[in-house]
Amino acid sequence: MDYEKYIRRCIELARRGEYYVAPNPMVGAVLVRNGEGQKAKGECILAEGWHERYGEGHAEVNCFRNFENTEYRIQNTDLSQCTLFVSLEPCSHYGKTPPCAKLITEKGVGRVVTGMLDPNPLVSGRGVQMLRDAGIEVITGVCEQECRELNKRFLCLHEKKRPYVVLKWAQTGDGFIDGRRRDVRGTKEHLNGALAISTPNTKKLVHKMRAENMAIMVGTHTVLMDNPRLRTTHWEGRNPIRITVDRHGILSMESRIFDHTESDYPGIEPVIVYRERTDWPFILQDLAKRGIDSVLVEGGTTLIEHILETGIWDEIHVEVAPELIIGDGVAAPAIALGEDYECIDGHRLYTLRKD
Ligand code: AOF
Ligand code: ZN
Fold first, then answer.
1. CA distance 10 to 31
2. Structure confidence by residue, pLDDT tens digits, 26-35
3. Number of domains into which the chain is organized
4. Looking at residues 145-152, what average pLDDT do you find?
5. Residues lining ligand 1, Cβ inside 6 A
6. Does one domain contain both 189 and 61?
7. Cβ atoms within 10 A of the Cβ of 223, count?
8. What is the rounded distance in angstroms from the CA atom of residue 69 to the CA atom of residue 279?
9. pLDDT (mean) for 80-89
10. Looking at the structure, do residues 114 and 21 belong to the same domain, yes or no?
11. To bridge 153 with a disulfide, which of 36, 164, 208, 262 should be the other Cys (CB 3.0-4.6 Å)?
12. pTM exceeds cut of 0.85
């Protein structure tokens, strides 16, 4: 049996939960009839499922539900002659749902193949142990790298005890993120003064990043000067939790980041403002405590340079508009972008990854 083929199918299914399951991992499951030892001959997929939404059924639960909705002849399959593939170790804890490992045992599945162990301290190996104790054959670590990549945010939170950090900015061909603007706080002018660099298509990618990350952060100056909403409007998905710092207590509650305060993430405040301690390691520690698995930092230069100095980040995305030359302005963070980029609407998109 080609284990990798089915784990890759699990990963594909897991992705259907993207934008809606964080801070849980994306997980997919596939129930396969083994080729041998069956009355009906031949290896085939009996049912599939994935974790669709935070707080709802896990992949395995949905897979078995779908299996039970199949025709009677298929339901009668001897599950001891079947293999359940799951991209992540089945859970062993009573969370919002009972343990998936228990469910699998009750169903009498003969073999379980998983992509990786679950780093959540509530699980971490206990799921596999429960299955083995019940006499089920368990194989782990199939396509492990791909499974880890799929859930890099979830893994970062549990393994490093901090959210996954994505830095993002757009700059002109001559290296500025904005023109020079007077500090026009409180006047109408400051609402519309920001230099627009992104194109309609690259803007969509920015909003995709907002959907992919649970939180979004900008510095005080950006709130004052650009008065951004920081919502996900040009892509499917939830609005991120908005974070800023206000060391000098100068932010107005009228700022748009405070608009419509309902959170898209159950149990987590929609807007977080750091006033006293504003250093990056402290902020990350605090975000992790709140269960936030990822943060997208959209500027400005001061905040991004502070983060670059600490060295605590995971990805950087820079959009360069080569033909936009403004001569003077607010310098972009100073980093070497390298040689590789993607091109969209004539703009260069650079992606840098820590490891
Ligand atoms: C699985 N299958 O599809 C997922 C798992 O709060 P709960 O009950 O939803 O539990 C969340 C934890 O369960 C999550 O942190 C992770 O350890 C595991 N996620 N496990 O067997 C799934 N999504
Ligand atoms: Zn589970």
1. 10
2. 999 999 999 8
3. 2
4. 98
5. 24-25, 27, 51, 58-60, 88, 90-91, 95-97, 100, 118, 120, 123
6. no
7. 24
8. 53
9. 97
10. yes
11. 164
12. yes
